[in-house]
Design a protein that fits this description.
single chain; about 150 residues; alpha+beta; 3-stranded mixed beta sheet; 3-stranded antiparallel beta sheet; 6 strands; about 30% helix; elongated
Length: about 150
C-alpha cells in the first residue's frame, strides 16, 4: 500500500536501494523486497536477498524467508504422464516454459501443461512479503500437475 510519504513505487524503489547502498539495516531490505514484489519483480527480490553483503543482516533475512518450493518429482526426463505436487510456504508462483514466475498469474489447483514444456522455476512469497530462494525445477513433460499447495 502506498502512502503519501512513500511516493510512487519507482521512487520508493530508488530511495530504498540508495538507503541499502548507504548501509541500510534490516527494515530497509524488507521494504525493498516488498516493493519489488508489488512491481512483479520477483527475480529482483530474490537476487537482492541472495546478495546481501552484511552477514548479520543476511542471516536475519534468511531466517525470515519462506523455504524453497519443492516438487514431488525429482528434476529429470520423463516419458509418461504423472501427478506432480508442488509445495511451498505462502503464495506460490511457478513458471511453465521459458519465463519467470509472476505475481500476475499465480497457479493454484490442477494444471495440465502441454507436452515438451517444462517447469522452469518457482518462488514462494511469505506473509511477511519476503520471497524464497529461487529453485530451478526442470521437469520435462508430459506430466499432470495434481495440485499446488
Amino acid at each position: 500500500m502506498l502512502t503519501k510519504q512513500a511516493g510512487t513505487i519507482p521512487k520508493r524503489e530508488y530511495t530504498l536501494a540508495n538507503a541499502i547502498a548507504a548501509g541500510g539495516q534490516l527494515p530497509v531490505y524488507e521494504a525493498l523486497c516488498q516493493t519489488y514484489v508489488e512491481q512483479d519483480k520477483l527475480l529482483d527480490a530474490v537476487s537482492m536477498l541472495d546478495q546481501v553483503a552484511d552477514p548479520a543482516i543476511k542471516a536475519q533475512l534468511d531466517a525470515q524467508r519462506p523455504a524453497v518450493p519443492t516438487s514431488s518429482v525429482e528434476p529429470g526426463f520423463y516419458s509418461q504422464y504423472m501427478n506432480v505436487t508442488l509445495s511451498g510456504q505462502g503464495s506460490l508462483y511457478v513458471s511453465i516454459g521459458d519465463g519467470f514466475p509472476s505475481t500476475a498469474s499465480p497457479l493454484s489447483g490442477s494444471h495440465s501443461p502441454g507436452a515438451g514444456r517444462n517447469l522452469h522455476s518457482g518462488c514462494g512469497r511469505g506473509e511477511n512479503g519476503l520471497v524464497s530462494p529461487w529453485p530451478f525445477l526442470a521437469i520435462p513433460f508430459p506430466a499432470w500437475w495434481s495440485r499446488w499447495s
